[in-house]
Amino acid sequence: MYMKFGRVKPARYLFDEMPVRNEVSWNTMMSGLVRVGLYLEGMGFFRKMCDIGIKPSSFVIASLVTACGRSGSMFREGVQVHGFVAKSGLLSDVYVSTAILHLYGVYGLVSCSRKVFEEMPDRNVVSWTSLMVGYSDKGEPEEVIDIFKGMRGEGVGCNENSMSLVISSCGLLKDESLGRQLVGQVIKSGLESKLAVENSLISMFGNLGNVEYANYIFDQMSEHDTISWNSIAGAYAQNGHFEESFRIFNSMRRFHDEVNSTTVSTLLSVLGHVDHQKWGRGIHGLVVKMGFSSVVCVCNTLLRMYAGAGRSEEAELVFQLMPTKDLISWNSLMACFVEDGRSLDALGLLCSMIRTRKSLNYVSFTSALAACFSPEFLDKGRILHGLVVVTGLFENQIIGNALVSMYGKIGEISESRRVLLHMPRRDEVAWNALIGGYAESEDPDKALAAFRTMRLEGVPANYITVVSVLGACLMPGDLLERGKPLHAYIVSAGFESDEHVKNSLLTMYAKCGDLSSSQDLFNGLDNRNIITWNAMLAANAHHGHGEEVLNLVSKMRRLGLSPDQFSFSEGLSAAAKLAVLEEGQQLHGLAVKLGFEQDCFIFNAAADMYSKCGEIGKVVKMLPPSVNRSLPSWNILISAFGRHGCFEEVCGTFHEMLEMGIKPGHVTFVSLLTACSHGGLVNQGLAYYDMIARDFGLKPAIEHCICVIDLLGRSGRLAEAESFISKMPMKPNDLVWRSLLASCKIYGDLDRGRKAAENLSKLEPEDDSVYVLSSNMFATTGRWEDVENVRKQMGFKNITKKQACSWVKLKDRVSSFGIGDRTHPQTLEIYAKLEDIKKLIKESGYVADTSQALQDTDEEQKEHNLWNHSERLALAYALMTTPEGSTLRIFKNLRICSDCHSVYKFVSRVIGRRIVLRDQYRFHHFESGLCSCKDYW
DNA sequence: TTAGGGTTAG
């Protein structure tokens, strides 16, 4: 009696005082202890009984085993009981063996459960259900359904628990036809009014994407518990109806007081999809206030929320502060690092999991494999491949897919194909990964061949397949042979209506050189999403239509669509290329207003824009302090100093970066070497070039070699430049010869120049620069016959020279000038102003340098031609129209002419104006008669 | 019976 009322003390006293104790007294005492939760003490009694040789009743054993499962930490005790039971022949008791199979299920050992199950002489619903629970907890819904079918096959009727289990497993498998059958069985078995069954039906329909039906069931229920509310909110959330999900949470607060940690997890997963800026931090605070901040699952969702918003530092902090972490926490943080590009951190996490003997599963390895996304990860990728084989995870479909993808991204495409061919089952994801790899390695033929084989093997293509194949055909020559037939396939296979496919088609046409088809596709789209707009932005950027990029961004805004990081970066880089400071500033301001201030892509794009618009001071101010500056920011800073002629700062910044322990990359050296070349720092540049391989283990790329050729050539060391080309680790391309030719022009080296021109025209027969440079070279050395010859060839091949153009921007108007331009409404005033300037600077000692003249005429005509240069017209106009003392900002599409450079210097001193001129390559800051380029450009 | 981690493209 005392035990029935949970009064342990008096019961134990009575038990201890009993002169004789029989089986019943022992059993009563033991089952009582288990009932009140004193599991370990119950276990002690069990051991004593075994020692004395008193047989516990099967009921008592079953409850003790159940207790071992419930405690969560009494696995060894449970196994001990199993041993006793097996010896004493109690396994034939259905209650005892069911309890034991349930115990193994709880501790994740489903194969042990199954063994016990198979050896049972007879089974009841609870035995079947217990086996199902084990598989359900392990995340194997297929098994659950198989067991359910076996149970039905043996004519065992189901109960509430087994029905709920199978319904939720069906939802996880997204098996619609089974779902329909189950609804029929629920009605037949009369379980339709059971709360647990109704709840699992809600979640099943949520998983099947049928929110209406989930909602119908919810509305029909006579009562709702917390699980019902959570299930319906989850159903809406899963299907993207986030607002509705919110509405449910609000009603929940009104009609149902109880909220649990699952409610909070669901709410958080919804918030991961809506405006993080607005809600994220608030909800984090709320979680703490509600006391859920130590629930593992809630913390995991919180971590995911920060990860989804691209804030890996905050996610890391959540992880560090978690009182207990499970496998999902570790996997989530690893995935977050991968998404944020922190591959080394992700792999470090895997290492510490292995080191501390944490349990790992296939998800851990898929993330680690995804971290290896570029050639430098080849060794690490191979090690992971080995680990995956050793642990037997190789058989896992998703791991196989991740391996195919990894080798593709690393550039080991033949290895990627080999993995695919050895897979027991090749699904569409595996094929898509292989096709993606071929696209990455720019091999459209192999991508299309893989696409054909895939279909021959009977694997149906999905929209990602189509997107990947399209992504492999992006060269101008691909359009007729591959792109258009693909478009035809897309239409016939019914992929045309897919948003992703449409966007990829748009990109394909643009990259293949057919911007107007892209435009047509864009115009024909009814619902353009952000990705469509971004694709169109990229298409225009690719064709150099910066103005259109900016137009599209403002059009987006007028239509009420917020630009995202991608749109802003594209817009900012367009503004940078056009050197339109006002537009760039407006975009940057808007990005900050929309909460992108901390986004590193955006502040880097903005910094680059300020640099290319001449605002060097702003760049220095806006980039993060050197302690937490990322590699792209360092690169931008170095190139900004180089572009503005601040060469001491270039070297200083580079060394500061090294002191901070940042390893320079490919881009760093391009910026560094370009700066040295423009600053005439020849020996310094050569030293930096040597560092690439020697000190940092990087392979010099052709871009670096071009910089060295430029460096040597511009300083007149033409023989060395030529010999460098012959010793380069790769084949010279057009840019190599163009650079050498340009240097030969400066120094009048006809022989080398001719050779360079020949090599260049072999590689780029249509290019105008070879003719322009050669004719300039001949002109400056007085070889007028050769000049005429080149001109004739150009006419013959229908090649036209790119026209020089300079412009000035005043408020919202751009005034541009060609050579000898007389189309401007204020032409007369402009030419009059030019005469004034000429007079003024001649009085100060200016003498025209006609040695660079390109026409065979007399001196007077040569000088007259110089005064028709576009940059001079722009200068005169700028002087006329801007307030005295303000800085003049002038742009030119080609390199500034050396005599104009001298005129600008005189003007800056004589008229006392600061002038900033941006030519094709760099900025010139003129002040008090000097230029920042120190006359070397 | 409800919630949290993964592969392909963008």
TrEMBL record:
InterPro entries (alphabetical): DYW_dom, E_motif, PPR_At4g14850-like_plant, PPR_rpt, TPR-like_helical_dom_sf
Placement of PPR repeats on the sequence: 22-56, 124-158, 225-259, 427-461, 529-563, 630-664
Occurrences of domain DYW (ranges): 845-937
Pfam families: DYW_deaminase (PF14432), E_motif (PF20431), PPR (PF01535), PPR_2 (PF13041)
Keywords from the UniProt entry: Repeat
PANTHER family, alphabetized: PENTATRICOPEPTIDE REPEAT-CONTAINING PROTEIN (PTHR47926), TETRATRICOPEPTIDE REPEAT-LIKE SUPERFAMILY PROTEIN ISOFORM 1 (PTHR47926:SF506)
NCBIfam families according to UniProt: PPR
Similarity comment text for this entry: Belongs to the PPR family. PCMP-H subfamily.
Record-given protein name: Pentatricopeptide repeat-containing protein At3g24000, mitochondrial-like
Organism field: Camelina sativa (False flax)
